[in-house]
């Protein structure tokens, strides 16, 4: 059935149904006038009772008009609904992505999952939220690996529909401090404890001016999330590689913007300690050989 035929059918139906609707409304109005006049002339009916009857009559007649209009206009409404449904389906298919973007925007607004200034990761994209619009969200990209907490200078515009299909990781607490881990692999005979002490001493020296702020920041995280984070004091952990070499790993709660510099100074101190140990080992071995020769 074409659009022209539908409109012609609607026109024919509307012509008859307008007259029927007017007739129904006039009939109801006449009934109401007659009932009101009759009750007003009744002296045996009290005022409260009269008002109650008139109110019930008015509501009943309004309901009758509503039901009558539904029956009168049902054929036209059915035809109009079918054409409207087809039109609505076409509109939805054409604007599917726009609807999804708007839905994703409402999801973010209602759940408060992200806000401007948060660090987020979604679908492999990671950065700081700098703008939220109805259709899209813009983030300043963060790097990966050693540059995980440094901006790349690139802006990424994400359609808000992505928030309906992928989980969001919110790293809002990483903006100022973060638990950072780095390690050094020594030789089989490395004094691991001395190496760890040297690296920890370097980190503590750099964190001396940030220690109190780090404690307050951890208290803030624990208060907001209800999760016990722990102490900001740097810690060392010892492991071995498959080749039997010792690995000293240091974990510290350090300022995000100073991660690279603090890590580099600690690693340099560790490498200096490894060099010192490697220089002492041959001297100790040579001294031991000399003592054995003298004893012989």
Produce the secondary structure layout:
Blueprint: H1 3-40, H2 47-94, H3 96-111, E1 119-122, E2 125-132, E3 136-142, E4 151-159, H4 162-165, E5 169-170, E6 177-185, H5 192-207, H6 211-225, E7 235-240, E8 246-255, H7 259-295
Antiparallel strand pairs: 1-2, 1-5, 2-3, 3-4, 6-8, 7-8
How would you portray this structure in words?
By secondary structure, the chain is an alpha+beta fold. It folds into three domains: 3-94; 112-173, SH3 type barrels (Roll), CATH 2.30.30; 176-295, Alpha-Beta Plaits (2-Layer Sandwich). The chain is 59% helix and 19% strand. The chain contains seven helices and eight strands; from the N terminus they run αααββββαββααββα. The strands form two sheets. It has a five-stranded antiparallel beta sheet, with no helix packed on it. Strands 6-8-7 form a three-stranded antiparallel beta sheet, with helices on one face. A hairpin with an 8-residue loop joins β3 (136-142) and β4.
From the N-terminal CA to the C-terminal CA, the straight-line distance is 116 Å
Give Rg in angstroms: 40 Å
**Which architecture of the largest domain would the CATH scheme give at its second level?**
2-Layer Sandwich
Mean pLDDT: 78
Q: What pattern of helices and strands is seen along the backbone? A: HHHEEEEHEEHHEEH
Q: Can you list the strand order of the major beta sheet? A: 4-3-2-1-5
| Main sheet attributes: strand count, strand direction, barrel closure | 5 strands, antiparallel
* Gross morphology: elongated
Instruction: Classify the oligomer.
Output: single chain
Question: What count of helical segments does DSSP give?
Answer: 7
Count the E strands.
Answer: 8
Uncertain spans: 284-296
**CATH class of the largest domain, please?**
Alpha Beta
Would you tell me which CATH topology of the largest domain applies?
Alpha-Beta Plaits
Percentage of residues in helical conformation? 55-70%
**Total domain count:** 3
């Amino acid at each position: 059935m074409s659009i022209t035929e539908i409109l012609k059918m609607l026109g024919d139906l509307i012509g008859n149904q307008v007259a029927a609707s007017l007739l129904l409304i006039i009939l109801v109005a006449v009934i109401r006038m007659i009932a009101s006049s009759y009750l007003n002339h009744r002296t045996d009916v009290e005022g409260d009772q009269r008002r109650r009857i008139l109110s019930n009559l008015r509501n009943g007649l309004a309901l009758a008009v509503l039901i009558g209009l539904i029956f009168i206009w049902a054929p036209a409404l059915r035809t109009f609904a079918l054409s409207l449904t087809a039109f609505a389906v076409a509109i939805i298919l054409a604007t599917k992505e726009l609807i999804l973007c708007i839905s994703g925007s409402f999801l973010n607004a209602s759940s408060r999952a992200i806000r401007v200034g948060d660090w987020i990761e979604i679908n492999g994209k990671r950065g700081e939220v700098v703008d939220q619009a109805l259709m899209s969200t813009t983030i300043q990209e963060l790097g990966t690996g050693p540059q995980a907490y440094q901006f790349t200078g690139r802006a990424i515009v994400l359609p808000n529909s992505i928030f309906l299909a992928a989980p969001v990781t919110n790293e809002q607490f990483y903006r100022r401090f973060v638990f950072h881990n780095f390690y050094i692999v020594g030789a089989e005979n490395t004094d691991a404890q001395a190496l760890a002490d040297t690296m920890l001493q370097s980190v503590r020296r750099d964190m001396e001016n940030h220690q109190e702020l780090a404690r307050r920041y951890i208290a803030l995280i624990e208060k907001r999330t209800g999760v016990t984070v722990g102490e900001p004091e740097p810690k060392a952990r010892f492991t071995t590689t498959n080749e039997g070499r010792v690995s000293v790993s240091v974990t510290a709660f350090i300022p995000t913007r100073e991660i690279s510099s603090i890590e580099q100074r600690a690693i340099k101190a560790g490498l200096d300690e490894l060099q010192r140990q490697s220089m002492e080992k041959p001297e100790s071995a040579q001294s031991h050989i000399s003592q054995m020769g003298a004893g012989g």
